[in-house]
Amino acid sequence: MAKVVAVTGNEAVANALRQVNPDVCGIYPITPQTDMMQRYASFISNGKVDTEAILVESEHSSMSACIGASAAGGRVVTATSSQGLALMWEMLHIASGDRLPIIMPVVNRALSAPLNIHGDHSDAMGARDTGWIQIWSENGQEAYDNTIQAFRIGEHMDIRLPVMVCMDGFIISHSIERLEYLEDAAVKDFVGPFKNLFPLLDLEKPKSYGPLILTDLYHEYKRAQHEVMMKVKDVVLDVAKDFEKLSGRKYGLFEAYRLEDADIAVVILNSAAGTTKDVVDELRDKGVKAGLLKPRLFRPFPYEEMAEALKNTKAVCVMDRSDSFGGYGPLFMEVSSALYQMKNRPALINKIYGLGGRDYLPSHGEMVFNELAEIAAGGKIRACKEYIGVRE
Amino acid sequence: MKKIFDRPKSLKRVPFRYCPGCGHSLIHRLIAECVDMLGIRERVVGIAPVGCAVFAYDYFNFDMLEAAHGRPPAVATALKRVMPDRVIFSYQGDGDLAAIGTSEIIHAAARGENISVFFVNNATYGMTGGQMAPTTLIGQRTTTTPRGRSSRPDGYPLRVAELLSTIEGVTYLERVSVDSHRDVIAAKRAIEKAFVYQMTGKGFSLVELLSPCPTDWGLSPNASLRWMREQMAHFFPTGLLKDAG
Questions:
Q1: Measured in whole angstroms, how far is the alpha carbon of residue A104 from the centre of its chain?
Q2: Chains A, B: CB contacts under 8 A, how many?
């Protein structure tokens, strides 16, 4: 039986980790993730889990410790945000290159400078090319559910890759929501015991991780990483099917909200998707065929499936909560690549919103849909990329 | 009547927003008084850390630069080398200097950089809410060691000043405290000396300041001062560790 609770996003994810009971956990505080690992530290102290906690001196060391523990054959977790993820950058590539299924909740926060502790997606977008699987979550429930599923995805014998589970800093990490927890035993059973693949300390078959490979085979090694990423989508869908049987909650590669017959649509990640769904509902009540697409799996990116889902739209706005300065928003670039392969493409615009925790309001969504309606009716595209909600 | 007490020019006319009983406001003031006294307000540049004192630039009335977590000694090195006529100091907590930035402080000391470092040790990660720091005492309760720090598996507290005292590049090292009037006066003297040594080209100085954190220690301001004297000062004894000036 599921248990209905009122908890914050951080608390929910800490509880998911407790239910999984990993072997090793790297702990280092950073706002807004701090309280997740702090809660986990109290689970350890209270004997609720058997996890070996390593209180390290920086995120660089935290990820290094995770790499060691994972290569040794443990089920390993850590969590971070913002500068912490940035400091891990070097190790992120090593974790994925060594094919170590480390699970890491990332509580999304803006990057310095200027210093800002609030929610935006600059941190995880900066890590999108590190070879990690990225799963994004709209709310605390999704963050909880995605964390549990992440173990099955990353640890799958055909995959063996590290996974980031992203949720919005403060907006989700620190807000209390109604959530459904699964039973401890059900989660344990769903995730299953950790299975080793080529662990260290196997004296019969000694092995090395991350050796020097130069021009002879590095290229092939990287192609292998690309190929394994191509298998991830199917595993994500299989795991989601099993998870639905357990929880009744349905997950896919992305969520299509009132999109089937939509003329105009917004593509938007995480918590702001919730706000935008309300806007979609209001527009639908007025007879406007508006829809929404919320990506869940960002790495690997489901290009074909997304193009298929958006094929009947006339105008689409991709909304980014981070920017690639001098380029387009990172989500826009992906959606744009997905749509390019189609013969008949919708018009596509990019809005940058909500940086450093700037509020995203329903009125912003309405404004975007109004602009899309004009474009769909044959109006000109004013600006392909534009910041919204800017104080002038 | 003659005015004998005023706010230092080197402090902005804004109230401190640190917690009641926190040592940062006091230490900020001591630094500001020394800067005024030495007449260097127009050529001093401070480096703010990540941690509670990230807001140092809101209070100091001179140029400040915000560095990434743990990096102030490297930033200070560069500032001093490009602007040798300026007086450069870094203001760092134990999370900044003794954890994430341990390598920066060791190497700035080893290079004997002509900078002044003010290292505020409150035996906890203050800003993130009281997690175990490398300086946390054995037995001290923190949010990540709710049953008290144990040497296994949490390791032993790190005495950074003693560690640095073995480095030849270091000119001046002193540990002071701000738990009593006498100690505050000694602290000010040490801060002044660290500035003077830099101004006379004598090299790397670090003043470690033991400082109370009533909020994260879960003690009243008064009890915090007592805890500093009875517990902290045993493991982190105050006094001069090195003076090669």
A1: 10
A2: 57
